[in-house]
Amino acid sequence: MTFTEEINRRRTFAIIAHPDAGKTTLTEKLLLFGGAIQSAGAVKSNKIKKATTSDFMEIEKQRGISVSTSVMAFDYKNYKVNILDTPGHEDFAEDTYRTLSAVDSVIMVIDCVKGVEPQTRKLLEVCRMRNTPVIVFINKLDREGQNAFDLLDEIEKELKIKVRPLTWPIGIGKSFKGVYNLTEKSLNLFQGDSKTTVEDTLTISDINDKQIDKRIGESFAEQLRADVDLIDGVYDTLDRQKYLDGHISPVFFGSAVNNFGIKELLDCFVEIAPPPIDRETDEGIVKPSDPKFSGFIFKIHANLDPKHRDRIAFLRICSGTFERNKYYHHVRDDKELRFSNPTAFMAQQKSVIDEAFPGDVIGLYDAGNFKIGDTLTEGKNFHFKGIPSFSPELFRYVTNLDPMKTKQLQKGLEQLTDEGVAQLFTKKADGRKVVGTVGALQFEVIQHRLKSEYNASASFDQLNLYKALWISSDDKKSLDDFMLDRSSHVAYDKENKPVFLAESAWLLQMAQEKFPKVKFHLKSEF
Ligand code: G4P
Questions:
Q1: Residue nearest to atom 34 of ligand 1 (CA)
Q2: How many domains are there within the chain?
Q3: Which terminus of the chain has fewer Cβ atoms in its 10 Å neighbourhood, N or C?
Q4: The pTM of the whole model exceeds 0.70
Q5: Pocket residues for ligand 1 (CB within 6 Å)?
């Protein structure tokens, strides 16, 4: 296969959803359809969403499992599909945002009973920031959900995206009979009441074909005809380019747990989803077809065994061919590194690979060289953009409980925050350390890992902050004045970028009014 063919057959994406919508089930069904796993239940345990904040065993289990499910690759038809896993627990949302920097498109799962939920909204905002193409899968049609048109309206209004259904449900809940494929004009129907197997596929050339009435009954047939009429009247036909630009989302209906509507989704996905896309760097655009290798680290995973400090850094390949044992340039550290055991993840099997192509994600054993966002190249000096930190939502002061272990604490905090478990800020005025996270669970994880991996004890003390905002200004004096005026509320992030610790929305507004030349950013990249 040529290099270009290797690139064009790759589909690297993530499935995103509000917890419980069916992300794990859908992932598993895609792997089943792709022949990557033989039985259901294999991916199931990858979740701690029901864990309480002190459920360390579950957290540890999640850490262990999520290495093997971080990337699930399989071949389907002529395509190589790479599914990047995102954590089920919303306290790990930041992890999800970063994973989204490494994909080329997403499939968003929505529960037809619950419709658009808070996490759906947040995740879609991140996709919109990057114009990531989104396919929507409306799940759980075997439950008494909302009317399909109402759901589409809700998605359009709430998520501010345009949609185009490509399949359509026949009935819902108890009366769910199957789905109509609007493109292929075929019906996939359930067998009996079990709703577990597809009875057969009926292909028709005309929606008025009386065979439909025979199979699903007159009233459902009439309803389907009316719905299809309305769909054609209301929604434009799918323009692939608009989908690729992130302006319109194709929609599929189905039931993941019952294998329903999945094949339609997968078949269409591999056809229309983008192959590896161009990536922005501080030195211009990098194309996947550039012969020189480049890639970036978007996730770092600690070794489960605390006696071994090595970690796995996940690298997304953006251009060229990655080769085992070849020296590559670590841009931030300005040093050359080579990797003797780069790992690929086919389904749930890990294996050492000799080469990998754009779109692939590989695991690199790391003894502490990498931070999230690091770029590796074949010699050039540039950094990939688009892997920002977002303002945390919860903040706490770190208090060292064991002065004999100050160094260990420092090292532990540095390394854990390199992994992206949380963000670390140092206050300008007194040097106090502040840890910021998206969820309360993180503090428990950090405290636990500091003790078990670094033998350091720390407590996390309440700090009521509204947001941490990165600050900049075209006018250096304005920024200096601001930092002096608000010095007790200024801190530095790990890159030494100044951050304003705003205690409330009102205080932020006051600061903005008083210092109009200072810009406040909710993410570290601006
Ligand atoms: P998540 O990863 O998005 O959090 O969701 P997950 O796949 O774990 O699914 C959440 C629950 O929804 C699971 O039930 C799952 O079986 C169920 N589910 C998924 N797809 C469908 C569907 O099409 N129809 C119906 N009715 N349910 C569906 P659970 O009770 O939490 O777990 P389990 O005991 O079934 O494993």
A1: 44
A2: 3
A3: N
A4: yes
A5: 17, 19-25, 47, 49, 88, 139-140, 142-143, 255-258
